[in-house]
Specification:
The chain is mainly beta. Helix content is 4%, strand content 48%. Strands 2, 4, 5, 6, 9, 10 and 11 form a seven-stranded mixed β-sheet that branches. It has a four-stranded antiparallel β-sheet with strand order 1-3-8-7, with no helix packed on it.
Length: 126
C-alpha cells in the first residue's frame, strides 16, 4: 500500500509561489495516475490537478489553469505541484492521492482516489 507525505506548504502573500511535494513510499506510484486536492474551511474537497502515469497528460481545475503545474518524478516516487500567482482564494489544505482508476476516469472526474496524505496548509494573504 502506498503511503503519501506532503510538504512545502506555508503562509505567503498574494502573487507569491510555492512548490508542494508529495513523497510516496511502500509502492511505486509509477503504476498510477496521481492527483492534488484542496479543501478550504467550510468547503468540499476539490481536485485541482492530476497527472497520468507517465506524466505526459495533465488535468487542471479551471481556477488554477495557467497558474499551477503538476509534475512527477517516478524515479524519486514523488509528485509536485508548482503554484504561481497565488491568490487568497487558494488558501486550503492541499493533499495528494493515488488514483486507483485509469486516466479516462480521472479526467471525467469519476476516479477512485485513495491512500491520502495528511495534507499541507497553504495560506495566502492579500
Amino acid at each position: 500500500q502506498v503511503q503519501l507525505v506532503e510538504s512545502g506548504g506555508g503562509s505567503v502573500q498574494a502573487g507569491s509561489s510555492l512548490r508542494l511535494s508529495c513523497a510516496a513510499s511502500g509502492e511505486a506510484i509509477s503504476r498510477y495516475p496521481m492527483g492534488w486536492f484542496r479543501q478550504a474551511p467550510g468547503k468540499e474537497r476539490e481536485l485541482v490537478a492530476s497527472i497520468n502515469r507517465s506524466g505526459d497528460r495533465v488535468y487542471y481545475e479551471d481556477s488554477v489553469e495557467g497558474r499551477f503545474t503538476i509534475s512527477r518524478d517516478n524515479a524519486k516516487n514523488t509528485v509536485y505541484l508548482q503554484m504561481n500567482s497565488l491568490k487568497p482564494e487558494d488558501t486550503a489544505v492541499y493533499s495528494c492521492a493515488v488514483a486507483y482508476s485509469d486516466w479516462y476516469e480521472v479526467v471525467n472526474l469519476r476516479a477512485d482516489f485513495g491512500s491520502w496524505g495528511q495534507g499541507t496548509q497553504v495560506t495566502v494573504s492579500s
